[in-house]
Amino acid sequence: MTDFTKFAGPKLGGALNKLMDDRHSDHLGIKMDTPFTRVLIMLILGAVAVAAYRVIFGLGASTNLNDYWPWGIWIAFDVLGGVAMAAGGFIIAAMVYLLNWKKYKCIVRASILNAFFGYLLAALSITLDIGRSFVIWHPMVMWQVNSIMFIVALHVVAYTSTLATESSPMIFEKLGWNKALGWVNRCMVGIVLFGVLLSLLHQSSLGAVYLIAPSKLSPLWYSKHIPYMFLISAIMMGLSMVSFETILTSKVFNHEAPKDVLDGLAKGVVFFGSFYTLFKFGHVITGPGIGALFTSGFLGFMWLLEMAVGIVIPCVLLAKKSNRADLNTIFVANIMVIVGVLLNRLNVGVFGVSDYANRVGGDYFPSFMELLLTAGMIAFAILGFKVCAKYLNLFPEDHH
User: Fold this and answer.
1) What is the pLDDT of residues 132-145, one digit of tens each?
2) What's the CATH fold of domain 65-356?
3) Whole-angstrom Cα distance, residue 101 to residue 85?
């Protein structure tokens, strides 16, 4: 093992040595030096190079964005999609710390950690997507309370910090910092309550951003209720994401998947998915009309694809009790929900504004550097989760 005291001094280096000491922590048998890990590292290094290139040469040189198409995949996928995938953190935290549903305690740490990485990547994407990345700190000291973008910025910073605090007990346990651990545990209910309020506001405020673009966003997605649609779909996706990672980590890290927990998460997906379906069809019926789904060409197809893949089919699968007892069926349904909600975010952020942008002379397809940065950020989240699973008590045995 590397001796970090040579590089970081005796105090910080000693803490790092203790944190990375796997003699008593590698209870899951996780191997770090694998071909998959090397691929992740290569993608991360590529993303770092792209980020440096973007900061030095600007958005025009590194992306295919333009004045008519100012937001692309970094916003639609990395921010809107990443934040939605992170919704499981506040949901499971509320279940465990506020409602005292103890059976979900075995997944609360992994859920919060996944949410932390999701928000961290969203924050990085926003930083790189704005014109002057070096002034990203301005909203924290230059308040504009009438701006929805200010609300989004404030929520991202506040909730990312909250998630880091909620995840800190694993670090304190590893380092043996019992006083800090005791302080955080005593404050955890208040921290979680604050995080739940922040996340509810933030998930909906991302949808509220598009209320300022009634003439640009297709009527298939534009609605005065879009903030609520974003919130409900994020909850549905958050539950599916937690279920997905629970099944996946049980296979990869060799621990048993809690079937009663997965059954409860699946029921939640069906409940919120059914409510979301009524919301979406109600909007179409009272707005552009059902006929618009079949006369809007590609956009109508994308709306139907989003609903079929992300909501209708998985909800039908999970509504049957026997299917909820089959881990493979739940796993497939989870993937469909995740893909479907990501399609929704891409529809709102990219495809839904394509008609307007094309009419005024704009065109967009992500550049290679945009795609590489996105892939590198996903790789960073996966590798970070793997490192935490190896060195921290992410899946405490006494919770199984």
Assistant:
1) 888 888 888 888 87
2) Formate dehydrogenase/DMSO reductase fold (1.20.1630)
3) 22
